[in-house]
Amino acid sequence: MVVRIWVVEAEPAEADARSLLTPAELSRAGELAREQVRRTFVVSRAVQRALGARYLGVPAAEVGISRACAHCAHDTHGKPHFTAAPELDFSVSHTGDLVVIAAATDTRVGLDVELGNRMIEVDEMTRVLTTAGERRILAGHRGEALRTELFRIWARKEAAVKLTGHGLLQVPFTALSVDGPVVRIDTPPAGWPDEAVHLTDLPLGHGSVAALATTVAGPRTEIVTLPRVADLTL
Ligand SMILES: CC(C)(COP(=O)(O)OP(=O)(O)OC[C@H]1O[C@@H](n2cnc3c(N)ncnc32)[C@H](O)[C@@H]1OP(=O)(O)O)[C@@H](O)C(=O)NCCC(=O)NCCS
């Protein structure tokens, strides 16, 4: 079982990526005032379209992508999915100028990437993010290693709630324990998977700390860095 992961740096990739978007997406990109937000928006939407286009064999702008929530009636805050290929599960994360997408057909996937050099308030983050078991792990670390471990816990939790589509509004950080290879959850919300959610830390480079959640244990991961979004091949 393979999970394919593509990593794109938005700064050089944006120019070419625009040609993959729909007119509505281009118009929305034009409304985004902050340059980095616009860049990652363009590249994120483009990489989703490139993946769908390769899989379905249709032009990128014609790939149907739904963001309808599986857990409520809302039509924009759900886990994105291809309307014509629900069996191809994918998950996207962006941080700084990095856009990453993971995809697989034989497991559900959730991905989160955090930049390890982001400024954080370690004590406050430990308080809002961690469980007692995770704090025992953190107690063995100091300085940079402690920050990295905190980001690792953060990425693992976000990856889990992105696999299920619940997001962090439905499942607060402290309801999840990620100090082992499988996620433990206090009171699973409706729609939480019956099968175990497995965690894999991902060596993506670029100063990132990243985690992949899957419903199959021990996934093989193939990580490809793309200079241009259009270079994505299956
Ligand atoms: C999902 C969530 C944790 C992502 O956080 P974030 O800080 O935006 O993190 P990332 O940059 O790593 O991920 C962004 C990507 O997550 C994906 N995403 C958005 N909502 C998602 C969801 N519910 N489930 C899975 N993935 C989701 C999108 O692909 C998005 O990128 P895009 O907009 O460019 O397509 C956060 O947006 C969240 O908690 N949303 C709330 C979802 C919600 O309201 N749930 C209620 C269910 S009833």
What report would you give on this structure?
With 234 residues, this protein is of the alpha+beta class. The protein has a domain at 108-218: 4'-phosphopantetheinyl transferase domain (Ribosomal Protein L22, Chain A, Alpha-Beta Complex). Helices cover 34% and strands 24% of the residues. It contains 7 helices and 11 strands. The chain has a 4-stranded mixed sheet with strand order 4-5-1-11. A 3-stranded antiparallel sheet has the order 6-10-9. Helix 1 (10-17) crosses helix 3 and helix 4 (122-129) packs parallel to helix 6 (143-164). It starts with a strand and ends in an 8-residue tail after the last strand. Bound molecules: coenzyme A. GO terms for molecular function: holo-[acyl-carrier-protein] synthase activity; magnesium ion binding. Belongs to the P-Pant transferase superfamily. Gsp/Sfp/HetI/AcpT family. Keywords: Transferase. InterPro entries: 4-PPantetheinyl_Trfase_dom (IPR008278), 4-PPantetheinyl_Trfase_dom_sf (IPR037143), AASDHPPT_N (IPR055066), P-Pant_transferase_sf (IPR050559).
